[in-house]
Amino acid sequence: MNKILVTGGCGYIGGHTIVDLIENGFDVISVDDLSRGSLKMLQGIEKAVGRPIKNYKVDLCNLDDTDAIFLENPDIVGVIHFAAFKSVPESVDDPILYFRNNFNSLINILQCAEAYNVNNFVFSSSCSVYGNPAKLPVAEEDPFTEPESPYARTKQVGEAICRDFSRVKQHFNTILLRYFNPAGAHPSGMLGEFMEKPENVVPVITQTAIGKRSEMTVFGTDYDTRDGSCIRDYIHVCDIAHAHTRALQYIIEDRNKLNCEVFNLGSGNGVSVLELIQAFEKVSGLQLNYKVGPRRLGDVISVYADNTRAKKVLGWETKYDLDAMMDTSWKWEQHLATLKKETAV
User: Fold this and answer.
1) For residues 190 and 242, is the Cβ–Cβ distance under 8 A?
2) Which residue in 183, 212, 296, 344 has the most C-beta neighbors within 10 A?
3) How far is CA 254 from CA 7, 11, 72, 259, in A?
4) What residues act catalytically?
């Protein structure tokens, strides 16, 4: 089996991707310093796949420790690089933290990949690279606008680092995956998002519904959108995970025409925050307690994907619709509540 190193493997998307990779015949090791990831995610992965997963508790900003992982695993054939700080508000408050962590970890991983002849690399990017796009849906060739947050800037620059590196390393193949707004949880119920204080809107919705939060805030209803709230492209985390598997297969099998290619990962549909709340209320049968607040610094008004290229080139299709995202998210939130009760007993 081809061995893949997944950085940030104990995070939300990284964990789901490990499951998908193993289900598609890959061997996987993880590196996650657990500063943002969770051992509970690792335990959920192991339950889902039925076997242990090796995780290296290593800070990728430490080059020597990163190098040691590659030295110990000379059979690595590809890397999926998720490990990065990803909070928009936190990046606004502390941009240097984000620049130092997200750039240094990426540079160290690329340096080690070169040193150990690992020539297949998938970079976790984001729709935030587009800023406030001039047209919708946004396509891969559309120009970037000024990023709305330091986090988004790290993704723009991270992509540039990958492109420049691939340009001079002729046998190094890179895929840049710009995904939109991940939501949902694994249908098995074994894993989902573990954030106690999430910033993504879907877990905020489910935490409000179950009573962890007394209410939630919709940040702005005065945008130039159909109902005044921000519009995003929500995509199930399992669909995003499978796209990473497809991307690796694409470059490992030498089907890529260029040694650095980019793909949007989105449903292709824009959903407003208020529409998202309505979808949850329909699936759950509950009335959500929310209020309207002022706009939040760093938020893009509206963005959703043209996913034609990923469908055509990678053979990737979304499997889960909005109702499935909300349903699996709600079941996961209820599962977390059950686990908490069992732990208390």
Assistant:
1) no
2) 183
3) 23, 29, 26, 10
4) 151
